[in-house]
Amino acid sequence: MAEEPESALQLPPSTAADGEGPTEVSPETATPEPPSSAAVSPGTEEPAGDTKKKIDVLLKAVGDTPIMKTKKWAVERTRTIQGLIDFIKKFLKLVASEQLFIYVNQSFAPSPDQEVGTLYECFGSDGKLVLHYCKSQAWG
Amino acid sequence: MLSVSMEEDEFFGEKTFQRFCAEFIKHSRQIGDGWEWRTSKDCSEGYMCKTYFQIKPGTVVSHLGTSAHVQTCLPTEEALELPLDDFEVTETTTGSEVIKYEYHVLYSCSYQVPVLYFRASFLDGRPLALKDIWEGIHECYKTQMLQEPWDTITQQEHPILGQPFFVLHPCKTNEFMTPVLKNSQKINRSINYITSWLSVVGPVVGLNLPLSYARTASQDE
Q1: Of B157, B92, B97, whose CA–CA distance to B124 is shortest?
Q2: Which residue from A76, A73, A77 is spatially nearest to A131, judged by alpha carbons?
Q3: Strand, coil or helix: what is B103?
Q4: Residue A101 counted as domain residue
Q5: If you write DSSP's letter for every residue of B120-187 in order, what string do you get?
Q6: Where are the domains of chain B?
Q7: Residue A7 in domain
């Protein structure tokens, strides 16, 4: 993943409130706004066209899961949930026996092959997709 | 009106189970996802179930229609009048089978959580072995499951139907559901336990919930 951490620019606290959920965004009306410049590192030219634009993803921890120091990431639309899970697991240095789950709407785990772009179209708001992640030992 | 709060209800009872299933099925009906409610003979217990069919692709074989062989002899007037269909190239898929998948969601009194039962069979009733079902599983789970499937998946008798099913063991359900539940309490949003739980465990055994369930998974109180 071409993550562009923007540690210099954090979301202001008021917009990072818990409980924020997606507004009713229907796929037809949700033309995603271009990612804010904060999520794209300088010097990277995004190719023209919506399909190439990255999605702003905001990752929030649930439960005892460690909080990621960088929460906001620019993610390619075609990145799958599984890809995101693998990335977070590495980032948090989880051990093999630990599972990581990602939720939209703080309640629903999308299928592992679901694409971030699709999730953004359904659940994104304010130009970003909020995903909650939670670690657990679910199996075995 | 049920006055069970989520705080008391991390281990939820059968009535709450049924309530969540009813809401889940309501949405399933709206989107044609095929889930139904079934009750035991004495109607004291019930469960949710879904059946779907999948064609397991086999090998595609092309060959000429057999009637073409008949036409290698001298063409007669009769032959020339035969419809062109007889000379068509036909394709058959050898080895392709239709597989019936069944998923049942039951309530476990001992664990006080929902449990996923599943099985797969060919149309003639021959059951699929667990290792054959794995082919439908997402890659990310395969490695894990192949290493320790026996801890997680057992074959048991369906409590109501009395037939053998594979069961995803419920012992870890609370472990991954509790943070989600606690979070929902914190933000004052009720969640449908069944929807959340099934969205997590379903993909492990090849059952993926359409995204529209996510909208119904939680609502502001």
Answers
A1: B97
A2: A73
A3: strand
A4: yes
A5: EEETTSPBPPHHHHGGGS-HHHHHHHHHSHHHHEEEEE-TTT-SEEEEE-GGGHHHHHHHHHHHHHHT
A6: 14-56+95-210
A7: no
Q: What is the pLDDT of residues B3-25, one digit of tens each?
A: 444 444 445 899 999 999 999 99
- Quick count: other Cβ atoms within 10 Å of Cβ B44? 9
Whole-number Å distance between alpha carbons of B115 and B139: 23
Q: What is the pTM of this model?
A: 0.73
- In a mutational test of the B interface, the residue from A95, A113, A134, A139 whose CB has the highest number of chain B CBs within 10 Å is A139
Task: Quick: pLDDT tens for A20-56.
Answer: 334 333 344 444 444 444 443 333 444 445 556 899 9
Please list, in sequence order, all residues whose beta carbon lies within 8 angstroms of the beta carbon of residue A103, skipping any fewer than 6 positions away.
A62, A109, A131, A132, A133, A134, B180, B196
Please report residues of B whose CB lies closer than 8 A to that of A105: 214-215, 217-218
User: Across the strands, what pairs with B26?
Assistant: none
* Interface ipTM: 0.75
Tell me how far apart the alpha carbons of residues A114 and B50 are, in angstroms, rounded to a whole number: 22
Q: Name the domain count of chain A.
A: 1
CATH class belonging to B14-56+95-210? alpha beta
Q: Which domain holds residue A86?
A: 51-132
Please count the residue pairs, one from chain A and one from chain B, whose beta carbons lie less than 8 angstroms apart: 106
